[in-house]
Specification:
mainly alpha; 83% helix
Length: 446
């Protein structure tokens, strides 16, 4: 990452990461397809009601794992092998601790959250049952994301691909057994997801235990160190706060969608899963790009940092354009894979056309925020996303959306691309300022 073609490096690192993420979504899509085809429309709506909350839980650990990746990457670039080993062992301990704490919190407060989301009565009990089978998998998700972050910091994205593929196969097989054979409905989907996540985590732990040098996991060295924890949290926590605030605005939107009934909920659940393919493809390039940024920042090579940012944005735009437009073109046949309910399909088509067409804006916004973190700045992008994305959405929902003219799912969903554009523009201006400040600090004559 410190030498050679950045474009080739981005492709080499991001493609396995993209494939692993897409595989994960495909396996998650299998959950929704199985429920949509072999369960009721209320069951599919229940999965949709939980998806935003569950996505937040997963993104918390992805953000913290990203913090570990940035800290490890910076130390790799600076040649500090002992510091890399410390980040590895602290990350595993931190993941286990935080995963357990979030599991307990989610178990206690989930009924209240579903109630606040205005989940319809006929869906409420099903959604609660589903999430109770998902929650035990949170510690595994936490440890996996921290472990994958360490591997990603050194450019290894292939083995996480293999691990997710193996776990996904387990997930699909268990879905078929639990849902179709044993008639467990959403409980079967949730249980299959949790078991498969532990399978992926076990594989990544074994992988790290067999590594060499500073990347080798030694179980007796797994412990928390205040200084290392602080460095990881300093990068990761602002991103977590950003994701929480981002999700709060999405939860408000989900509550508004819930108010339109089970058909709207089911259609948005299926469409949301399809959107994940676009988002995941772009985020994979972003994660590869921030590894280049953090390592070259650690080495003080700002010319290469700048080139990494531009080439990452170029690849993200091309990726978002391809995935987004294909999803729009084939929206209806893709949604028909998930459900045969025509009302739900119609709702899903509306969502995909509004969101996936301009999805490139979301990629630009996310990439610029990640690059700031790669330069060691996490607070600035979090504040900008809070004001630009979350603030604009909430302002629309509590004002214009409340009027009869704009009270529809179509006008509700328009808040997404509008907020992406506003936030991306603000992030671009601030990124340029931060880049110049950091370059001047390392290269006073620049």
């Amino acid at each position: 990452m410190l030498n050679g073609s950045i474009f080739k490096g981005l492709v080499r690192v991001s493609l396995p990461l993209m494939l692993s993420s897409i595989l994960q979504i495909l396996f998650n899509a299998a959950d929704i397809i199985v429920i949509g085809r072999f369960g009721s429309n209320n069951s599919l709506a229940a999965v949709g009601a939980v998806s935003v909350i569950w996505g937040l839980c997963c993104h918390v650990f992805m953000s913290l794992g990203g913090g570990a990746a940035v800290v490890a990457g910076k130390n790799i670039g600076a040649g500090k092998k002992d510091a890399v080993a410390d980040v590895l062992h602290v990350s595993i301990a931190l993941g286990l601790l935080l995963g357990t704490l979030l599991s307990i919190t989610a178990w206690i407060f989930m009924p209240k959250v579903l109630w606040l989301l205005q989940t319809p009565q006929e869906v409420f009990g099903i959604a609660l049952r589903y999430v109770h089978y998902l929650i035990p998998g949170l510690p595994a998700i936490a440890v996996y994301n921290f472990g994958a972050g360490i591997l990603r910091a050194k450019g290894d994205t292939k083995r996480p691909l293999y691990f997710l593929f193996a776990a996904g196969v387990v997930n699909v097989i268990l879905n078929l057994i639990f849902v179709i054979a044993l008639k467990m409905d959403v409980a079967g989907v949730g249980l299959a997801t949790s078991v498969s996540q532990y399978a992926a985590t076990l594989l990544i732990i074994v992988c790290l235990a067999l590594e060499e040098g500073e990347f080798r996991l030694c179980f007796k060295m797994i412990r928390l160190k205040a200084a290392v924890v602080a460095s990881i949290l300093r990068i990761g926590v602002p991103n977590v706060i950003q994701n929480i605030l981002f999700t709060i605005s999405n939860l408000v939107i989900q509550a508004a969608i819930n108010s339109f009934g089970a058909d709207a909920m089911a259609g948005n659940a299926a469409a949301g899963n399809l959107e994940n393919f676009c988002w995941t493809a772009m985020i994979s390039v972003e994660q590869a790009g921030v590894s280049f940024v953090s390592q070259n920042f650690g080495a003080g090579n700002f010319k290469r940092v700048k080139k990494s940012v531009w080439e990452t944005l170029g690849v993200i735009c091309a990726t978002g354009l391809i995935f987004g437009e294909l999803t729009v073109i084939f929206a209806r046949p893709l949604l028909e894979i998930y459900t045969s309910n025509q009302a739900s399909i119609a709702e899903g088509v509306v969502r995909l056309r509004i969101l996936c067409g301009p999805y490139i804006l979301c990629g630009i916004m996310s990439s610029l925020a990640a690059d700031m973190r790669g330069l060691g700045h996490s607070i600035e992008p979090s504040i900008i996303v809070l004001l630009g994305a979350c603030g604009s959405r909430l302002a629309w929902i509590f004002t214009a959306f409340q009027t009869p003219r704009f009270h529809s799912t179509r006008w509700l969903l328009f808040t997404y691309p509008a907020s992406w554009a506003i936030t991306a523009i603000a992030l671009a201006f601030v990124f340029v300022k931060i880049f110049r400040q950091e370059r001047a600090r390392f290269e006073p004559s620049a």
